[in-house]
């Protein structure tokens, strides 16, 4: 007998993935120098009540002008800066309340890659040490030879030859250094990568290669990304959902296609209009 129940529209598969990260009313403050007495303590508040979610395998783009608070949000998510208030949950656990060794399992699941692949790699360490260090911390049972093998596999995965292992960061181009940063982030087998302007410091031709690499890795490993960028074209290309940040607040959040086709907020429209290529 045919099923006569009216079928409801099937939800987007992305909506069925589990929520990894949930940021709720996040506020971050930085103290300013000069406030010796408690009463006169001064601060800036670059993030003023920001909320969003990231599902497994999803890319959420975070766009906004310089100084709007994008990097600060990324750093708060990976707990490089402490939240002043609000909540950060990872797989429903309040990670903003954790510190020290209790953060370790979270640091294994969420990694950050940075804008400047030159400054983010220790110039005195070989690539084997740079990529091997997170393995040492998070997989202490691995022997040195196993760590080296694993580092070689990671380098191959990001498109670098195995003889890179015994070389130093200065021997690589900007794009190659960013690949090393990605290999280091992947070493702990994370679920979510916070990518802070990962291609902004690179030549345009190299940018596309790194963007493609990030997409391939997402496909193969099911990674989720918080992709921070002021480059709206790159964000449109990569993101499922886009958050528009203005002076520390999210002024618009929408699926990428919808946001670019039909921006609802006046600031979003201005931001889109200011990009000649769009
Ligand atoms: N450690 C800090 N101490 C004090 N103020 C800071 C600190 N880090 C950032 N800020 C300030 O917080 C604001 C937001 O900075 P943030 O780097 O998060 O913005 P952004 O959107 O990532 O900008 P950009 O694209 O230029 O990196 C800026 O006004 C910045 O000067």
Automatic annotation (TrEMBL):
InterPro entries: AAA+_ATPase, ABC_transp_ATP-bind, ABC_transporter-like_ATP-bd, ABC_transporter-like_CS, P-loop_NTPase. The keyword Lipoprotein does not apply. Residues 21-272 form the ABC transporter domain. It comes from the Bacteria. GO terms for molecular function: ATP binding; ATP hydrolysis activity. PANTHER family: D,D-DIPEPTIDE TRANSPORT ATP-BINDING PROTEIN DDPF-RELATED (PTHR43776:SF7), TRANSPORT ATP-BINDING PROTEIN (PTHR43776). The gene is oppF. It comes from Methylacidimicrobium cyclopophantes. The keyword Calcium does not apply. Belongs to the ABC transporter superfamily. GO terms for biological process: transmembrane transport. Keywords: ATP-binding, Nucleotide-binding, Transport. Pfam families: ABC_tran. PROSITE patterns: ABC_TRANSPORTER_1, ABC_TRANSPORTER_2. This is Oligopeptide transport ATP-binding protein OppF.
């Amino acid at each position: 007998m045919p099923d006569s129940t009216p079928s409801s529209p099937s939800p987007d598969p992305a909506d069925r993935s589990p929520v990894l990260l949930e940021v709720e009313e996040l506020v971050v403050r930085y103290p300013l120098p000069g406030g010796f007495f408690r009463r006169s303590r001064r601060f800036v508040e670059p993030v003023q009540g920001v909320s969003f979610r990231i599902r497994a395998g999803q890319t959420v783009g975070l766009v906004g002008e310089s100084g709007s608070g994008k990097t600060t949000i990324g750093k708060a998510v990976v707990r490089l800066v402490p939240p002043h208030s609000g909540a950060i949950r990872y797989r429903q656990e309040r990670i903003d309340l954790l510190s020290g060794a209790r953060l370790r399992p979270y640091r294994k699941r969420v990694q950050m890659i940075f804008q400047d692949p030159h400054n983010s790699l220790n110039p005195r360490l070989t690539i084997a040490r740079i990529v091997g260090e997170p393995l040492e911390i998070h997989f202490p049972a691995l022997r040195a030879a196993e760590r080296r093998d694993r580092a070689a596999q990671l380098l191959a995965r990001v498109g670098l030859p195995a003889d890179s292992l015994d070389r130093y960061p200065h021997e690589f181009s900007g794009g190659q250094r960013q690949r090393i940063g990605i290999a280091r982030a992947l070493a702990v087998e994370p679920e979510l990568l916070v990518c802070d302007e990962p291609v902004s410091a690179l030549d345009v031709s190299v940018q596309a290669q790194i963007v493609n690499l990030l997409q391939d890795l997402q496909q193969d490993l099911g990674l989720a990304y918080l992709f921070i960028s002021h480059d709206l074209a790159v964000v449109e290309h990569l993101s499922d959902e886009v958050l528009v940040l203005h002076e520390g607040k999210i002024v618009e959040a929408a699926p990428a296609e919808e946001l670019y086709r039909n921006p609802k907020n006046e600031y979003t429209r201005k931001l889109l209009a200011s990009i000649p290529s769009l």
